[in-house]
Design goal:
The protein is an alpha/beta fold. It is 33% helix and 23% strand. A hairpin with a 3-residue loop joins strand 11 and strand 12. The relative contact order is 0.12. It binds zinc ion (ZN). Zinc ion (ZN) binds next to helix 8.
């Protein structure tokens, strides 16, 4: 097809790769910076179908690095998946887009993979706990996935198949630094580089070349790109890819109070709280069918339709627990 000619005449990808791409179902976990950029590239390239899962609404502070969103989306508190779906449909109406506005948790990830049956999964999340969970769920369902992360000016990408080394193997060797976008910031160029490299791994896999089997790291400020051959990193007693012990997947239930990036806590209420939000002692600043922006005792908060609430400006777990109890009591 003329539309895709320039990519299809690149011989290593070729018509074969293009045909595979047009018949591939890709699940993108997260519609923030990495997820939205991967989705845009794959939509422009003519992917068969994309299923995108995300639970956030667009905020003004996202716009410096999440190129597909605009001020109107932030003003309207648009869920990222809905705003993304609308834009992707304008870019390429041939791609089947399924947008799921919901939280990804240890309770639903396996079911989502089994229900939607993607051929491959792309990581667009922003925390390591979620990536351990994706690692376990994808290993259990035998679905390849591509890890991507960006913080500060640094990024890393690693594509993982069932045979490993898996993400758990890798993290035994490469320790977590505890850095996060909320604390350490993020420089927009590294987002584009990581998202591009995630898509590159996908294109290799699609066109029959297989994953690069390299851990790719880059720094968009010092201008460094390094690769590390990962074949030697497989842990022979890995709990996940050797012993199939899925610690994160099998955790009994989701917590009511959970620490997020920076000084943010996630509180989980019953979904009905969204409809009874006027009973809360909070002040509603702005709202739509998907989210309500509120303030309470100096805290900024966003309440979502499914009962989740992000509270900004909270430092202590004890304060978060107390806030949860106070608010929960008011809607009982
Ligand atoms: Zn492993």
């Amino acid at each position: 097809m003329k539309r895709y000619q320039r990519q299809a005449i690149y011989a290593p990808f070729g018509k074969h790769g293009q045909s595979r791409l047009e018949n591939t179902h890709i699940m993108i976990l997260g519609a923030g910076a990495l997820g939205s950029h991967c989705a845009e590239i794959l939509t422009r390239m003519g992917a068969g179908s994309l299923t995108i899962i995300d639970m956030d609404v667009v905020e003004t502070s996202n716009l410096h690095r999440q190129a597909i969103f605009d001020e109107m989306d932030a003003e309207q508190l648009q869920p990222k998946v809905i705003a993304l779906e609308n834009k992707l449909k304008l870019i390429n109406s041939n791609v089947k887009i399924t947008a799921l506005y919901q939280e990804l948790t240890n309770n639903n990830i396996e079911n989502l993979l089994k229900t939607y049956q993607p051929d491959i999964v792309i990581d667009g999340m922003d925390n390591f706990t979620m990536r351990f969970l994706i690692n376990e769920a994808c290993h259990k369902c035998q679905i390849p996935w591509i890890y991507g992360a960006a913080v500060g000016s640094k990024g890393s990408v690693y594509a993982i198949d069932y045979t490993g080394p898996c993400f758990k193997c890798l993290l035994e060797t490469v320790p977590q630094t505890g850095e996060s976008c909320a604390i350490n910031g993020v420089l927009p160029p590294v987002i584009y580089q990581v998202a591009s490299m995630e898509v590159s791994e996908l294109l290799r896999w699609l066109s029959g070349h297989g994953f690069s089997k390299k851990l790719i790291t880059m720094d968009s400020f010092t201008i460094d790109v390094k690769t590390l051959n990962i074949s030697g990193l497989k842990q022979h007693q890995c709990p996940v890819c050797k012993r199939q012990h899925y610690e994160y997947l099998n955790q009994p239930r989701t917590k009511h109070v959970e620490k997020q990036c920076g000084n943010t806590y996630l509180l989980r209420f019953n979904p009905s709280v969204f409809n009874y939000a006027t009973l809360l002692p909070t002040t509603i600043v702005k709202q739509n069918d998907f989210a309500k922006l509120m303030t309470y005792q100096g805290y900024q908060m966003t309440l979502f339709k499914d009962g989740r609430m992000n509270v900004y400006g909270l430092d202590e777990e004890a304060d978060a627990q107390q806030l949860f109890l106070t608010l929960n009591k008011s809607v009982k």
